[in-house]
């Protein structure tokens, strides 16, 4: 798992959200989630109201970490795609650009073939955006805490 929190810039966040919305429609999915490897939900689209998205994000990241351990045992670098079939719902999980995890939940309204086709295109678009984010963060020295000032901390923890 990665230890450095990811910084999202507003412009790229809007692009990521648009891609998730498009993937939700194009794949006829119930829901789409984008999670970082630390288990933080970055974006979502679709029928997410009845789901504990915090748990979903955390468990997905844990699943990727565990599967990474299995891959190493077998001499593989990683298993970039996972598919879990349930009675009503299915989950397609894929790594995007070694940085984030794309989770698609779908049912009988879609198919694994359609989801895989649409995920391939969205994955390429998302990987490009995350490369831009990584470059911006490197150039600006941005961290999760870079915009927090001493006044912000005083206001948060102060008595006033």
Characteristics of this structure?
19% strand; five-stranded antiparallel beta sheet; Beta-Lactamase; single chain; alpha+beta; 5 strands; 160 residues
How would you sum up this structure, described in words?
The chain is of the alpha+beta class and 160 residues long. It has a single domain, classed as Beta-Lactamase (2-Layer Sandwich), CATH 3.30.450. It has helices spanning 10-26, 53-73, 112-140, 150-157; strands at 31-36, 41-46, 81-85, 90-96, 100-106. A five-stranded antiparallel sheet has the order 2-1-5-4-3, with helices on both faces. It is globular and about 50 Å long. The model has no long low-confidence stretch (mean pLDDT 86).
Question: Topology, please?
Answer:
Layout: H1 10-26, E1 31-36, E2 41-46, H2 53-73, E3 81-85, E4 90-96, E5 100-106, H3 112-140, H4 150-157
């Amino acid at each position: 798992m990665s230890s450095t929190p990811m910084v999202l810039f507003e412009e790229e966040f809007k692009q990521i959200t648009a891609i998730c919305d498009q993937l939700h429609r194009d794949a006829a999915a119930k829901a789409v989630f984008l999670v970082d490897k630390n288990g933080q939900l970055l974006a979502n689209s679709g029928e997410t109201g009845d789901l504990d998205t915090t748990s979903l994000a955390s468990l997905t990241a844990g699943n990727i970490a565990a599967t990474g351990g299995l891959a190493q045992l077998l001499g593989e670098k990683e298993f970039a795609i996972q598919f879990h079939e349930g009675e009503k719902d299915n989950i397609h999980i894929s790594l995007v650009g070694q940085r984030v995890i794309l989770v698609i939940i779908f049912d009988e309204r879609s198919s694994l073939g359609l989801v895989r086709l649409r995920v391939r295109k969205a994955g390429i678009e998302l990987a490009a955006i995350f490369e831009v984010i990584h470059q911006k963060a490197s150039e600006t020295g941005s961290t999760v805490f870079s915009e927090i000032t001493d006044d912000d901390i005083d206001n948060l923890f102060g008595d006033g």
